[in-house]
Amino acid sequence: MVVARDYEEFKKAREKLDGSVGFVPTMGALHDGHISLIKRARRENDFVIVSIFVNPTQFLEGEDLDKYPRKEEADLKICELAGVDIVFMPTINSIYHQDELKILAPKIRGYILEGAKRPGHFDGVLQVVLKLFNITKPTNAYFGKKDAQQLALISSMVKDYFLDINIVPCEIVRDKDGLALSSRNVYLSDEERVRALSLSRALKKGAELLSKGILDSEIIKKEMEEILKKNVDRLDYIAIVNREFKEIDKVEIGNSIILVAAFVGNTRLIDNIWV
Ligand code: AMP
């Protein structure tokens, strides 16, 4: 396994890969969610590239950029065991230049939900993902459904900018008790972790209502809110959108996503189900 720390080093290693390439972009502190993406990439491609880069441009002022967990040694071990060919761990200066041109998230879908709570976040995500795509030149790129809006916007970028890359959406990996795995879960105290379970519980409630034939978004959101408001410290949103990320009044089975975002203590958590 090659570990490349800047563009030049990476380019040398990339040139030697002759075949299909699966790419998994991450911010490190790898867990079973990331590993499931890497394993899928391993199964479906001749070569696998993982990037580990805590991208400063997608963090807003006052967010957790400085304390975001960094676990370089453990991450490299995980990649090695999973059969990764190249790990790209660039420094910030080897990725960003002075006064560079910007790519902007779409005005509507990039500024609702996550984009409304974190304005500019998706500009930074798309900026770094476009760079990483151009550097790694993947055949297939793997993204978790956990970050559903991110996945939708990256798929749009690929379409709008005619990028010749296949985006592969991957299922959300959860702990046994339902909590969606996230690098940020390490911030939770034991007591907060128990309250954090209300996110997946609320989503499960939403799915239960659907199975009873209740499709009205307002009714579903109200029932979910009952569960969440007893447990979280701040509810950012409960939303029901179609797969194009437009809010809908009635769930379209097979084409909808129910999403939640909330703070438990100082930790901001997101979760969703695709229904
Ligand atoms: P991150 O390191 O948080 O930027 O995530 C890197 C990739 O892993 C993104 O495509 C995420 O959607 C995906 N991911 C994170 N958590 C999970 C999870 N619990 N299940 C599946 N994919 C995940």
Main sheet record: 6 strands, parallel
Output the strand order for the largest sheet. Answer: 1-4-3-2-5-6
Mean pLDDT: 98
Unreliable runs: none
Record field, number of beta strands: 9
The percent range for strand residues is 15-25%
The CATH superfamily of the largest domain is HUPs
SS field, number of helical segments: 9
Distance between the termini: 39 Å
Q: How many separate structural domains?
A: 2
SSE order = EHEHEHEHHHEHEHHEEE
Q: Could you say what the CATH architecture of the largest domain is?
A: 3-Layer(aba) Sandwich
Bound molecules: adenosine monophosphate
The fold-level CATH name of the largest domain is Rossmann fold
The dominant shape is globular
Radius of gyration: 19 Å
Classified by CATH, the class of the largest domain is Alpha Beta
Helix share of residues? 25-40%
Briefly, what is this?
The protein has helices spanning 7-15, 32-44, 72-81, 92-95, 114-117, 121-136, 148-160, 190-211, 217-229; strands at 2-4, 21-26, 47-52, 86-88, 140-144, 166-170, 234-242, 256-264, 267-274.
Provide the descriptors you would attach to this structure in a database record.
six-stranded parallel sheet, 275 residues, Rossmann fold, 9 strands, 38% helix, Pantoate--beta-alanine Ligase, Chain: A,domain 2, 9 helices, globular, alpha/beta, 2 domains
Topology:
Elements: E1 2-4, H1 7-15, E2 21-26, H2 32-44, E3 47-52, H3 72-81, E4 86-88, H4 92-95, H5 114-117, H6 121-136, E5 140-144, H7 148-160, E6 166-170, H8 190-211, H9 217-229, E7 234-242, E8 256-264, E9 267-274
Parallel strand pairs: 1-4, 2-3, 2-5, 3-4, 5-6
Antiparallel strand pairs: 7-8, 8-9
Helix pairs in contact: 6-7, 8-9
The structure holds adenosine monophosphate.
